[in-house]
Structure formats: C-alpha cells, structure tokens
Write a structure and sequence with these properties.
single chain; 187 residues; mainly alpha; Hypothetical protein af1432; 10 helices; globular; HD/PDEase_dom; HD_domain
Length: 187
Amino acid sequence: MTREQAVALWRQWNSDESLWRHALSVEAAMRHFARKYGEDEEYWGLVGLLHDIDYQKYPEEHLRHAREILAPAGFDDTFIRSVESHGWGICSDVEPTHVMEKVLFATDELTGFIAACAYVRPSRSVLDMEVKSVKKKWGSAAFAAGVRRSVIEQGAQMLGIPLEELIGETILALRSAAAETGLKGNL
C-alpha cells in the first residue's frame, strides 16, 4: 500500500484533525527510528500513520477493531500485530517484541507529551526544543496529566536506551514534520 492509499484509509475512518496531527507525529517518529535502526522507513511509517486507525470510531474499544479494518485493506499479520502492540497493558494484550513494535509503544505517548511541551513554549515549536525542556515538565503530574509517563519509560527500557535519548531522538523526528503537525510554532 502506498502512503497516499494509507492516508485515504485513515481518512475513511477518521476526521478529527488533532488525531490526524498525532498520526503524522507518530509516523515521523517511526520513520526516524527506522532510519536509525536501518529498517524499512516506508513500512515503519505506515505503521505509525495507521496505529490509531480505529480510535475515533471506537475509543472505548481501541485496537479491538484494527484487524477488521487493516486486513481487508491488504495489511499482513506482522503489520497488524505491530499496530495492536502499541496498546499493550492498556487496551491490548499483544506484547511488543520486535524493535518496531517497541518504538511504536515508546513513542506513541511521547509524541503527545512533546507536543504538549511545545504548545507552552514561547515559540510554540519543537524546532528550538531541547531534551532538558521536556525533562523539566516530566515531573509535573499536573502537566499533560493524560500522558502515561510509565509507558514511555517502559518503552525506553524495552529499547535498551536511556529516556533522555528516546526524548532527544523523538524531538529530532518531530522537527522533520513540524509544519505538518502544527509544531512549527512561530519559528
């Protein structure tokens, strides 16, 4: 499936622009990490783009409908399993085992946290953001209270990298898609 076809599939099931920006953010993170690990950037990017394919229509049953949407569209079991694994321990019992699944698990919540950090910066941008800015907000439970920091920390552990490195790499990924995701701010 091409990216254009994947976008059309996403739009068939979703219309929320905030969810779209999140899909683009996770796609950017997945592409970035695919390059870092020498993996297939297009494949990983599509996993990121479509990871929440059923969320808008079935928020209370998230990931229980992903397979019935993705399989008829031509996605294989590996792709679908990867999508399902990002909700491990939250809304799915599919444990991330492949590095791609671990990256998706780790960056899904993190992209949202970094976006929240960007929105409160004077620049409203990730383009001038550093890891220390994100870490400063990390300990404030009231800030981006819906973000499960423990999931992000667990994802970093799964990947065998320090949390600071995961944050830094994800910031770099989001910089590459800042205009499309609304994270360019006024820079």
